[in-house]
Amino acid sequence: MPQFCVKWAGNEYEIDGLQESHTVFDLKEAIAKETQVLPHRQKLLNLKCKGRPAPDATQLGQLDLKAGFKVMMVGSREETISSAIEKPSDLPVVEDDFDIKEEKIDVKDRQEFLCKVERRIREYKINQLNEPRKGKKLLVLDIDYTLFDHRSSAESGAELMRPYLHEFLTSAYEDYDIVIWSATSMKWVEEKMKLLKVSSNSSYKIVCFMDDLAMISVMSEKHGFVNVKPLGVIWGKYPQYKPSNTIILDDCSRNFLMNPQNGLKIPPFREAHLNRHKDRVLLHMSQYLKSIAKMDDFSSLDHSKWRKYL
């Protein structure tokens, strides 16, 4: 794949590291990192597909770009836009019956991010460990700081494991199929689950492990560019799971940006040597999951208030 040169505001920016399977939106994200112009503010004037402006979902390999191709971009940074539209403080107050406010689109509804989810559904290969069970809801679990303190030192994995992990998984398995999804590579997911004896436990079974390759990058005003865990990837692979019967536990709330209704931010488990004798979070999580398991639809729940619900 040729290196891109982007011309903007009298300067040229080199963009590399992209492959033919990446999309125009991936290119825009790379440009944003160099120029701080957000993807939805960019207009790439000479990037064409079949004679028309290339849509964000178009793969770069479809554009037949030549080596040394220069992309002409028009766009403005957020601070430039803000200063341009800021009203002078000395203007008289005037009522405007035609005041139009720009509608903000939530991250979860942005078409460019939904296209990324569709791409993961098509391309991400799930190594299924056990068959999903009919009629079960879905519980998705993070690893680091959720089930395991991966930063502290210890002589054994048991000392870094969150207290009551196996009791929690055994209880949850009665009502939920379980997926483990970590923002690390599959090698480390498998190693940690083996270390914690999750993979071989006879009291419960895991449907599959998922890693960082199933995640997507999004842009949000609060967090900037971040990688998130879109549950739509699982729903696309396994239609029996859906927004109404899925819950994901993670110590990092930004992982829920594509599915805020389904996320429960769990208190992180750190400094295991100090806290493993007093941490009871997974016991409380077991009670909460059991109390909502009979509900037909989770859509009405506010998981951030799980303590009050108990």
From TrEMBL:
Per the record, the major location class is nucleus
One GO term describing the cellular component: nucleus
EC category name: hydrolase
Per UniProt, the keywords (alphabetical) are: Hydrolase, Magnesium, Metal-binding, Nucleus, Protein phosphatase
What range(s) does the Ubiquitin-like domain occupy?
18-74
EC number(s) stated in the UniProt entry for this protein: 3.1.3.16
The places in or outside the cell where this protein is found are: Nucleus
Gene3D superfamilies from the UniProt entry? HAD superfamily/HAD-like, Phosphatidylinositol 3-kinase Catalytic Subunit, Chain A, domain 1
* Pfam families, sorted: NIF, ubiquitin
Q: Which residues form the FCP1 homology domain?
A: 132-292
Q: Which InterPro entries does this chain map to?
A: FCP1_dom, HAD-like_sf, HAD-SF_hydro_IIID, HAD_sf, Ubiquitin-like_dom, Ubiquitin-like_domsf, UBLCP1
Q: Name one GO biological process term.
A: regulation of proteasome assembly
Mind listing the GO molecular function terms for this protein?
metal ion binding; protein serine/threonine phosphatase activity
Q: Which cofactor does it need?
A: Mg(2+)
Q: Catalysed reaction(s)?
A: O-phospho-L-seryl-[protein] + H2O = L-seryl-[protein] + phosphate; O-phospho-L-threonyl-[protein] + H2O = L-threonyl-[protein] + phosphate
Q: What is this protein called?
A: Ubiquitin-like domain-containing CTD phosphatase 1
Query: Which lineage is the organism of this entry classified under, starting from the top rank?
Result: Eukaryota, Metazoa, Ecdysozoa, Arthropoda, Crustacea
